[in-house]
Specification:
The protein is of the alpha+beta class. The chain has a single domain, classed as Roll (Pnp Oxidase, Chain A). The protein is 32% helix and 29% strand. It is built from four helices and eight strands; from the N terminus they run αβββββαββααβ. The protein has helices spanning 13-32, 94-101, 123-136, 139-146, and strands at 40-41, 51-59, 66-72, 74-76, 79-83, 104-109, 112-120, 153-156. Strands 1, 2, 3, 4, 5, 6, 7 and 8 form an eight-stranded antiparallel sheet that branches. The termini are far apart.
Length: 157
């Protein structure tokens, strides 16, 4: 199977559960250690070139409760750039749907907390940022090939 071929098991409930429980575990470890552990992603394209991980907290659009997920990020000055790839799954991740309803978010890097406003990058911004994001983590390009949706790029500032 070439990297551009979508794995058959990608839509299985098993994969969704791995993402959900892995995310929860990473968040707990990150918070318990102040970001000393769980602060980098070392899977796939990041095996040799670890990618920084932040925690993003949104407000659940249905529950109204805080929802926190670990995400890869690109930092540009005072803003954080996130990718709603969800591993190339066909639907946007819940965190992205949440911030579309309520754009006020918290980004945590280590012990630092940033209260920010999130927005979806415009087409022009996405076109400018996407090559840098793929340079940071080449699997974003693979995920893009696996899904029919346009993977949103989110800017938190």
């Amino acid at each position: 199977m070439s990297p551009k071929e979508r794995p058959d098991q990608l839509d299985s409930p098993f994969v969704a559960n791995i993402i959900k429980w892995g995310s929860r575990l990473n968040t707990r470890v990150y918070r318990l250690t102040g970001g000393r552990l769980g602060n980098t992603w070392r899977v796939g394209a990041a095996l040799r070139k670890p990618i920084p991980v932040c925690l993003l907290t949104t407000v659940g659009r249905r529950s109204g409760q805080p929802r926190t997920v670990p995400l890869l990020y690109l930092r540009e000055g005072g803003r954080f750039v996130l990718v709603a790839s969800q591993g190339g799954l066909p639907k946007n991740p819940a965190w992205y749907l949440n911030l579309r309803e309520d754009p006020e978010v918290v980004v945590e890097v280590g012990r630092e907390r940033f209260e920010l406003v999130a927005r979806t990058a415009s087409e022009e911004e996405r076109a400018e940022l996407w090559p840098r994001l793929v340079e940071m983590y080449a699997d974003f390009d693979t995920y893009d090939a696996w899904t029919e949706r346009t993977i949103p790029v989110v800017i938190c500032e």
